[in-house]
Amino acid sequence: VRGGGPHQNLILMDGMNVYEASHLGGLSSIFLPGAIKYINFHKDAFPARYGGRVSSVLDVRLKDGNRQEFERQLSMGLEGIMGRFDGPVSKRLSVNMNVRTTWFDDLAGPLVQRNTSIESLDMGYSDAFAKLTWWLSPGSRISGSAYWGEDIIKLVINSSPVNFTGFQDLNRISWGNRMASLKWETVIGDQFFVKLQSGISSYDYNSRGSYEFEFEENGMPSQRAFDILSVSSISDHKISGELDYYSNKYGQFKIGAQYIDNLNRPSIEESNNFASEPETVPLSDTSYHSREMAIYFENSLSLGTDLNFISGLRWSNYYTGSNHFSYLEPRLRLQFDFVNSSVGISYSRISQFIHLLSNPGPGLPSDLWVPSTSRLAPELSDNFSIEYSAHFKSFSWGASLWYKSFDNLVEYENPSDIIYSIIIDNELYQVEVNNDNWEERISSGGGYATGIELYSSMSYKSLNLRLNYGYSRSFRQFNELNGGNRFPFRYDQPHQASALMQWKFNEYAQLRMHWQFATGFAYSLSNTERLGADGQPVLVPSSRNNFRLPDFHHLDISYEHRFVMDNSIVKLNMGVY
User: Fold this and answer.
1) Residue 268: which of 359, 169, 168, 371 has the closest Cα?
2) Which of 113, 146, 254, 576 reaches 20 to 30 Å from 283, CA-CA?
3) Strand runs (DSSP E) across 353-394, as ranges?
């Protein structure tokens, strides 16, 4: 979002941290429509209640159960099967449950194996949501929320490339989120609203790439193997409290405090063996225990009929080992409202205490969540934005101009991948594996991102149209990398555009079309040969993120028809991707 990486987006599910919000690399979201009450998204003007991520906020509130009647839903399609149960347990108790599992690999697996060198394919994901709400009174309730989700991708490739007698490649990635929380909300009089919450969340990530080569050397058969295993395990225990106060004279106030007890275990293991089957995951690197505490204050004040001033201040603290980091983070927004238009100006300062290490090359993702330490300071970002919007009866449009600066970012020092490239023009080269700890592999630096966004929407009778375009650039600069010169960030995408059309023929049928275009991601491609430390040639990139994936676009067309049968509604959805 706006020049940041995925790890810089704060994703909350009923107030609890979620570290991955997509399935199979973006094929589907973990959030199910039947489980969601509302979503708040912030890409600028971050309220002070949010902290810990420097790019954006996605705040998802799960839906309370229906207190009046039962609702049941069952969906089946190419993706998988999904079910929902929603309704009252008693007069004051309601429940909302949503589950989903996929059979995608059962359909795609045979096609992939028949047309590629992939020997076996295992792809799947599952989700389960539950929320139980006890209504103590019309203005007071206690709710318990829980979520469980997991993904797995496993590919085994057998082939015989040129100059090799055999090649075997095993790639396996698995990840999953867990969350459980208990929240009490109550209204006190006409001016106060109180929220207290306690909960736990966890995230586990496991990535493994194993490669085995058979070849002839000086007329004799030879073999070489490499294995890279990265594991990231995170658990959070969170306690928070918040008080809202409403004043006719001084506007709306929000005061709150948060405490997170965090255990983080990142690990990388490299060896010269081929791991044919999953095995017990070692965690040889250090376990990090940290504490994050924050106090915040917000105020929303109307300075007349056309001017609104929204302010906030957050005091964030982070403790890990003997290290203590503390930051004051101001949040300001000034908005002018006219007859059919508005102008907004905002500034936010944000800190982020955990980092994501990702291999810079095009190979298997190897993501490690790592904490701030004595060698690695927290990420900091200053966000500036100015926007204009105009609204008419059936047409609206707007534009935003924004700028972000980043400090204390982290990258692997190795220019191409966690290990050096294995093959150069069908020849094997020795791989140096000499680092046992992630802190020995990294470099710290900064960067900036800037851009402009244009958007418009139009409605005419049963037709709705939306058009969006954004131009942005995002750069990074590290003293130890790329000769100290700036380079494009992995998620630097100069051009992004989308178009959405929705046409309702009647109350039973609708057609939806969605088109999206984006510049391809940047990555480091090894294209220059040099001598390694042992005198053997190795291949390295000519510069950091020197190549791009192709520009990407996709079009989704879907038609939905509803049938009313007795007391049930049947929906038939047909789509082309």
Assistant:
1) 359
2) 146
3) 354-357, 368-371, 379-391
The C-alpha torsion from 305 through 309 and 310 to 311, rounded to 10°, is -150
Q: For residue 92, which amino acid is it?
A: R
User: Tell me, what's the pLDDT at 543?
Assistant: 87
Most distant pair of Cα atoms in the chain: their distance: 89
* Residues 279-338 pLDDT 10s: 555 555 578 899 999 999 999 998 888 899 999 999 999 998 889 999 999 999 999 998
In this prediction, residue 79 carries a pLDDT of 82
Residue 493, C-beta contacts closer than 8 angstroms, at least 6 positions apart? 472, 518, 519, 520, 521
> What φ, ψ does residue 143 adopt, rounded to 5°?
-130, 140
Please classify residue 25 by burial: count the beta carbons closer than 10 Å to its beta carbon, then call 0-12 exposed, 13-18 middle and 19+ buried.
Answer: exposed
For the segment 503-518, what is each residue's pLDDT rounded down to a tens digit? 999 989 999 999 999 9
- Residue in this structure with the two tokens 């039973």, named with its chain if needed: 508
pLDDT < 70: residue spans in the chain: 159-165, 276-285, 360-365, 414-437, 532-534, 536
Phi then psi for residue 517, to 5 deg, are -130, 145
Backbone angles phi, psi at 272, to 5 degrees: -105, 45
Structure token digits, residue 116? 């590629």
The per-residue b/e assignment along 356-392, b for 16 or more CB within 10 angstroms, e otherwise, is: bbbbbbebbebbbbbbbeeebbbbbbbbebebeeeee
**Contact yes or no for 450/402 (Cβ under 8 A):** yes
Report residue 101: phi and psi, to 5°: -145, 155
Three-class DSSP labels, 389-430: EEECCCEEEEEEEEEEEEEEEEEECCCCCCCCCCEECCEECC
Give the pLDDT of residue 84: 94
* 314: its two tokens: 């957050």
d(CA 491, CA 7): 12
Q: Token match 């100059």: residue?
A: 163
Assess contact for 176 and 152: CB atoms under 8 A: no
**Any idea which residue has 């630097």 for tokens?**
492
Beta bridge partners of 96: 86, 131
pLDDT at 85: 93
- Alpha helix ranges (H) inside 461-568: none
SS3 state at 226: strand
User: For residue 487, which amino acid is it?
Assistant: F
CB atoms within 10 A of CB 139: 12
Q: How far is CA 85 from CA 34, 65, 70, 72, in A?
A: 9, 9, 8, 5
Other beta carbons within 10 angstroms of residue 431's beta carbon come to 19
User: What size, in residues, is the chain?
Assistant: 577
Radius of gyration of the chain (CA): 26
Query: 252: helix, coil or strand?
Result: strand
CB 403 within 8 A of CB 348: no
Q: Which residues pair with 354 in a beta bridge?
A: 371
